[in-house]
Amino acid sequence: MSERTFTKTELAEYNGVQRPEKYVAIDGLVYDLTEIPTWSGANHHGNVAGQDLSAIIVNAPHKKSVLAKLTVVGKYLG
Predict the structure, then answer these.
(1) What backbone phi and psi angles, to 5 degrees, belong to 47?
(2) Mean pLDDT by 10 residues, the chain (78 residues)
């Protein structure tokens, strides 16, 4: 895992608009969603990249099972 850290403001830049990469934070880790097909549009089921989605993912049908497939790019400081 990368030693990079992200504040809330820094993470918000990785929304696919300000920067081409799409990152989200979940439980203190930042995941790269850039190459995930379901995140190729502006949002994924109404959720946008560049945010902490820890509270959202627990209500998703897949829960946290998808996280094992994603690349961790750093830690989230909030």
Answers:
(1) -95, 140
(2) 88 93 96 88 79 86 78 94
